[in-house]
Amino acid sequence: MKLIKPYLLAITTVFFVNCASKKEAVTLKDSYKKDFYIGTALSADQIEQKNPKVDSLIRKEFNAITAENSMKSMFVHPEKNKYDFTLADKFVAYGEKNKMFIHGHTLIWHSQLAPWMEKIKDSTQMKAFMKDHITTIVSKYKGRIGSWDVVNEALNDDGTLRKSIFLNTLGEKYLVDAFKLAAAADPKADLYYNDYNNEEPAKREGTINLIKKIKAAGGKIDGVGIQAHWRLESPSLEEIEKSILAYSALGVKVAFTELDITVLPNPWDLKGADVNQKFEENPKMNPYAEKLPDSVQTKLAARYASIFKLFLKHKDKISRVTFWGVYDGQSWLNDWPIKGRTNYPLLFDAVLKPKKAYNSVIELKEIKE
Ligand code: 9MR
User: Fold this and answer.
1) Which of 110, 138, 198, 365 has its CA 20 to 30 A from that of 155?
2) Regarding predicted confidence, which is higher, 327 or 13?
3) Would you give the end-to-end CA distance of the chain in angstroms?
4) pLDDT score of 283
5) Distance, CA of 242 to CA of 138 (rounded, Å)
6) What residue owns the CA closest to ligand 1's atom 10?
């Protein structure tokens, strides 16, 4: 007995150390490395590595990055004759240092424009703006940025073209112009059209038409970004799958570019709700201010698992799945569509701990291989 005990202890220790180091080695990016990139959006603070714990989580789990805001027009091109690449340079250097796939977001978007851009009124000025803006930014990072959101959110939910300063000044030709300019500046970068709700039927049709038109007019378009700001109950897996199939049938890659899943009520779904109601002051709109109940945590895990199962089924068509943020505490969904709520849309919680949803995404791969 006396002899057996230390022997058993040694075996048990070896067993647990092995298990622990095996668990330690499991990460999102490694689990999915043969399937598609696993990315995250980076805030300005994350680009500047302000928090070492967040930084090591990013480097451990993700192999692709998108700047959440720092490459948008108002930041990189604040005045007509002035570019500011301070943060964009740091973002690209960070990706290179960590051997990550670097995605550029975004070149032509109606939102977050610099004030001077909003004043562009005629087609000559707009043409000159687009040429200078796209050529300057894309050439600066030629060969270093793997793919670009060339045009972002150009469609309405019914699939028609969104009224924007680009459409108003140039007509729909601005779309193909943008893709041609980007291709000329970096012929090897993958060029994407990126939007939200484009897994829904009407917008999907609009997106298909848009891609066909760009191709027919000689533009180079390599992919479509489905942003994937989703909910627990919708969109259906069926619509997501139809979209993956429909887009890839056009010969373009599919990326899920801004994935998150809100667990909070959406005031605009409340039929008959008084639009003047102060949602901010209504505690019903922020039901999990202290903690996410286990039942919802489990629902979120199941939703993520079913989505990733579908992604794996179509891994040959999917280039990248990027989360819109690293952890719950920093998500834009804490402030949209109502400010100051506590949301739980990502795989890591507010103190950076992997959630049940993280395990469900990892386990899909453990079972298979
Ligand atoms: O997450 C971004 C948030 O910090 C900004 O305030 C917001 C401004 O429009 O943009 C958010 O990111 C958006 C992305 O650039 C494009 N698709 C929708 C995203 C969420 O609004």
Assistant:
1) 138
2) 327
3) 40
4) 84
5) 32
6) 69
Summarize pLDDT for 260-274 with one digit per residue, the tens: 999 999 877 655 545
Active site amino acids: 153, 258
**Model confidence pLDDT, tens digit, residues 189-231:** 999 999 999 999 999 999 999 999 999 999 999 999 999 999 9
SS3 343: coil
Q: Which residues line ligand 1 (CB under 6 A)?
A: 68-69, 111-112, 227, 258, 332
292/310 Cα distance (integer angstroms): 26
List residues bridging with 148 in a β-sheet: 104, 191
pTM for this prediction: 0.92
- Which mutation among 110, 164, 324 tests ligand 1's pocket best, with the greatest number of atoms within 8 A of CB? 324
Structural domains in the chain, sorted by start: 27-288+315-345 (3.20.20.80)
135 Cα–ligand 1 center, Å: 24
- Measured by CA distance, the residue closest to atom 12 of ligand 1 is 68
